[in-house]
Amino acid sequence: MFRSILDTSRILHYTTLVRTKFPRFRDSDKCREDRYAFCKENEELFVSFKKIIYVNNPTMDTDDEDEKAIHKKKREQSREILLNYLRDDCQAPFKLRCWDILSLKFHSYLGRKLEFDEKKEKIDDKDSKLLKSELEKAKNELENFKK
């Protein structure tokens, strides 16, 4: 259901995939090879994203000062790549037109589901059927909304 909503809204076309822990992030050939491999693995998902950004954020949790300095430089370079991308390519805000309604319906469904789960063991059969009916109604509202 959620995948259907993502497809309908085209939100992934506004989503950037950030590939982290990519040590060769400055090598454009290696990035291109990785994009190609990702596309071969799942072309449908690959074409859904606006762009793929490559970075490397190695840990700073090391006692070796030389290693820490190298990691810090890589982190700074990665941060610069992301900030430049955000500054240059991501200025237009995106909000689903139907987000407010969808959010309310989804929260209603979750609330009813949680209520049902909490009361399931404490209620009699008649109340159980009523709660199941309410839960099913909320689920149907949510599914019908995406159509």
Brief synopsis:
The protein contains six helices and two strands; from the N terminus they run αβααβααα.
Question: How would you characterize this protein structure?
Answer:
The chain has 147 residues and is mainly α. It has 2 domains: 10-89, no CATH class; 99-145. The chain contains 6 helices and 2 strands, in the order H-E-H-H-E-H-H-H. It has helices at residues 2-9, 28-41, 43-46, 65-89, 99-119, 125-145; strands at residues 16-19, 51-54. The chain has a two-stranded parallel ribbon with strand order 1-2. Helix 5 runs antiparallel to helix 6 (125-145). The model has no long low-confidence stretch (mean pLDDT 79).
Mean pLDDT: 79
Largest sheet: 2 strands, parallel
Structural class: mainly alpha
Q: Alpha-carbon distance between the termini?
A: 11 Å
Succession of helices and strands: HEHHEHHH
Strand adjacency order, main sheet = 1-2
Tell me how many strands there are: 2
Q: How many distinct helices?
A: 6
Give Rg in angstroms: 23 Å
Approximate strand percentage: 5-15%
Whole-number tally of structural domains: 2
Low-pLDDT runs of 5+ residues are none
Helix content: 55-70%
Choose one word for the global shape.
elongated
Break the fold down into its secondary structure elements and pairings.
Elements: H1 2-9, E1 16-19, H2 28-41, H3 43-46, E2 51-54, H4 65-89, H5 99-119, H6 125-145
Parallel strand pairs: 1-2
Question: Can you tag this structure with a few keywords?
Answer:
2 domains; two-stranded parallel sheet; mainly alpha
